[in-house]
Amino acid sequence: MFELTKEYETGIDKIDREHRRLFELADECYNLLKDDACDNKYEKVRKVIKELKNYAKFHFSEEEKLMESVKHKQIFTHKLQHDYFIEKIDAIDIDDIESNQDQYIIDILTFIVAWIRQHILSKDAQYVRDVIKNP
């Protein structure tokens, strides 16, 4: 369902591979939501959230290193968006999942997909236009 299409590609292979993994994690959430055979999704949701948090931290660090290497002028505001994403994921109360698992997955998925789409299409695309393709 969620995949890195042409419109989300930055043209930087390393970043595109990392973005693809973020889309895969969103897809894992979606597939879990649609899995009617699984009546208790708690452990699976926990696993996906943990992996998302760890992978996002890794990816953001890599992206920020790239921006630092070319002295990107908007690195501070870009990093603030990365920090916001991590704060939102860190704020997820895993104990709340038990009561309404599907709604919880929908809420997480809505946030992840909206943030990733906006960030890649806006901030990352601007970074590529400003620094990588027009140095």
Automatic annotation (TrEMBL):
Gene3D superfamilies: Hemerythrin-like. Keywords: Iron, Metal-binding. The keyword Iron applies. NCBIfam families: bact_hemeryth, hemeryth_dom. PANTHER family: BACTERIOHEMERYTHRIN (PTHR37164). Transmembrane segments: none annotated. Belongs to the hemerythrin family. Residues 10-128 form the Hemerythrin-like domain. InterPro entries: Hemerythrin (IPR050669), Hemerythrin-like (IPR012312), Hemerythrin-like_sf (IPR035938), Hemerythrin_metal-bd (IPR012827). Pfam families: Hemerythrin. This is Hemerythrin family protein.
